[in-house]
Amino acid sequence: xxxxxxxxxxxLDVEERFSLADMLRHRLGLTGTHLGCEHGVCGACTVxxxxxxxRACLMLAVQVDGAAxxxxxxxxxxxxxxxxLQQAFSDHHGLQCGFCTPGILMTLTEFLADHPAPAEDQLxxxxxxxxxxxxxxxxxxxxxxxxxxxxxxxxxxx
Length: 158
Fold this sequence. Notes:
By secondary structure, the protein is an alpha+beta fold. It folds into two domains: 73 residues, Ubiquitin-like (UB roll); 66 residues, [2Fe-2S]-binding domain (DNA polymerase, domain 1). It is 32% helix and 12% strand. It contains five helices and five strands, in the order ββαβββαααα. Strands 2-1-5-3-4 form a five-stranded mixed beta sheet, covered by helices on one side. Strand 1 and strand 2 form a beta hairpin. Helix 2 crosses helix 5. The longest helix has 14 residues.
């Protein structure tokens, strides 16, 4: 199968039973996609497929044939500079242990693309599918609200 991952072409032969999460982690070395519950409940494995947030533990790898996959590793610039959202998480203590953070970032990436000016209650609803035991979510909400209040830098919204 052939697809793109974080903007780069990829071609792999995978067993039909292999999950997208397992392929990303074990075949491509993209370990930012975390496996928590492996039932699609916790959100730690969230990645983007063709611009939509999906649970990588519930998708078979073969389902991304021809698709564009983005993982948390693909949010930073090529030079390693964090995206605005990633930097805001750091600035506002929106992460602690970090286990849930990649999935939350991917969920929010799609949410903010679809809702460029959400109310706080909409943001909290969007986060309801991602479980975080460490932060209490306030730092995450503060980070997103800061990104929304700040104009993007010249040249793009990264």
